[in-house]
Predict the 3D structure of the following.
Amino acid sequence: MTRAVQQQSFRVVELGTDPGLALCGKWLGALGGTVLRVDEAGHPMAMRPLEAAPVNQAENPLDLYLNAGKERCTLDLDDAKDRATLAGLLAAADVFITSLEPARLTELGLDAASLGNHALTMGRTSLFGDRGAYAGLKGNDLQALALSGLLYIVGEPDRAPLPLPGVQASYSAGLALLSGVMVCVWAADRKRAFREIVTSGVRACAYLDWKSQIYFEAEGKVLVRGSDRGPIVVRCADGYLGFYYRPGDWENVKRVIGGTALNDERFATQAARDKNRAELREAMEQELANRRKAQVYAASQAANIPVGEVLSLTETLADKQYDARGFWQETEIAGHGTCRMPAMPWTVNGARQSLNSDAPAVVAGAAQ
Amino acid sequence: MSAAGMLDDLVVVDLSGITAGGRSTQLLADFGADVIKVESYDRPDTFRNWAAVTGAAEAGDLSSPPFRVVGRNKRAIAVDLRDPAGLEVARRLVEKADIVVENFRRGVLEKLNLGFEQLRRWNPRIVLLSLSSQGSAGPSRNYISYGVTLEALGGLMSMTGYGDGVPVWTTPKVNYPDQIVAILGPTLAVAAVRESRRTGRGAWLDLSQRELVTALLGESVLQSELTGQPAVAPQQELAGDGIVVQAAGDDAWIAVTASGQDMAVLLAYLEAHADAQDKAAAVTTPAAQRAEALLRAWARKQDKFAAMAALQAADIACAAVLTAKDVVEQGAARDDGLYLQVPLPNGDKVESQVGWPFEITPNQGGARIRRRAPHIGEHSSDILRSLGFAEAEIRQLIDSKIVHQPAAN
């Protein structure tokens, strides 16, 4: 891949094991940052208890996905010499992002009070925040989703709230950190000063679930889980469809689905379809029982109905759109050969961006 | 608080609609960018009268609560871009802008003569941020979507479920892809303007919402590649990522995780605190199953906040599952900028809106509420004046209905 745009570089030092932090660092590297990841000796990025067959720590998918291509060094921060090395790195940096806990940062002389004399943008992410009732809570992504409100709203109304997969709370905080850092880098281009950004998984996910909050604020309504009107998830011969349709699409929906079941009076208006939602799903699934999701997806789109087929990640690896867009980045992994993972999800002037590989010279001696 | 926002030297022409675009440009506006919302008077942003969540939309162009959020701090002009005189207005807007944001169906921008090549002819340093469904190239580029259908296409739905193979989406109440793109989109735009200010050359950013969904599952893709096993919705296990169990009260829940050594700690706590009847009823082995059975029985009798406090005190990862009501009520006591007081239209009341996804010190980067969301075309005349239109020209544009300017209250 080629870098489509060579931005005015800024030097980033990344320290910590949080996945969102690493995502932030990775994408900063495509937005003009020259990123150095510092791994703290004895503190590898944790592996998640994934369902598939386990892989060893050297093949930690989170580490490989988020940190491949970064310049890295490992430092023992309990060692004075290595701490001095880190201090040197930070003295030359424009941005310092970390997920170390506040107490540890203070112990290492890396908190805002200690670094405040530097013209530095410092960003910290965590799952639960640095202050307030949740600071210091024990938990993982699930608990952060719970406290943000985002967990409550996902799932079926008669079943338990359902977490989003992976580490979405951590990643959301990583996106928030990325955004805050870029705003501060913009400001630093005009006036260099110390600036601090703090975010958390709870905060970022509360930001994402803003519609639930504004409807409660404005109308006193607590939105509940599940689809209760309009768009509907339906089964077909080989899987499922996210059948999004607008009221004005209904005649086209009947034409695409075919058969006669949808002509029933119970489905004549949007209000009636919402009232008879279970029967509507049954009728649609009856008509779609022998049709493949890709075919229904294509037919719906041809009729201007914004349906999406439910694809597994394995199916996305064979998807023609992703292939045409050059979305899969190939990487060589010892013992596994060429493996694919997502590239940056954007293009600049039609070209996919990649991680900046220019490392600060000061790390030459410490880099692995 | 400083009057200036960190982005107050940015000018944004906002052609976007509904959530993904509106929320993206709202973040820029909150931090001081001059965001000019461009709409058609005949076909305004449908978010102004949004019924997809509650099923009802009141009359009035500021009646929709979510629009009042995404529209804040913006100015608005209503102009018919299909008319040559309207296109001239667009040209002058783009000439003075740094960023144009759009989330039209692919091809619409070009039909309006506002494609990137045209924009670049008017302003070589312009940055076009396209928040596309699946990207502006490829065989599916013209397919239309709403946020949740991109969860389907991006793999998220297949990974979200109760373990029975039935996929679950976040529904239009959340529209997760729209929300995550609205954090990344403005970030990319700011980075690209840094470059355009340096080189004088603009750029076309094409942010595929579907790709972003998959990118936030990247480690699962790689896991699948490494193991040869398909990535599926994970079973929810106490010793894995955790489980959600019912607490006392209507639709009240707690989220608990007890991996590694924590399983023994949790079991010991529950053995000490569960009812004798529940202990007798629970299976005896293995420990994880007994702990889960005891947890479910114990939690059903606990207030969710009390349960969270008790298990956290025992060093177990636990959180109450907060409703929007809980989040807003707790937020009222916050002073970290997560909630803002925003004036309501036509009155002296305010409403509490979610602020920003991060805190910046000092002064929150100058982010603040400068104005409520605008009516359709509320600032049309002022914007035309700033673009150099004479008063007679403005009158003519309004009289010929190419531009709409609502009457002043």
Observations:
- Confidence is low (pLDDT under 50) at residues 1-6, 357-368 of chain A.
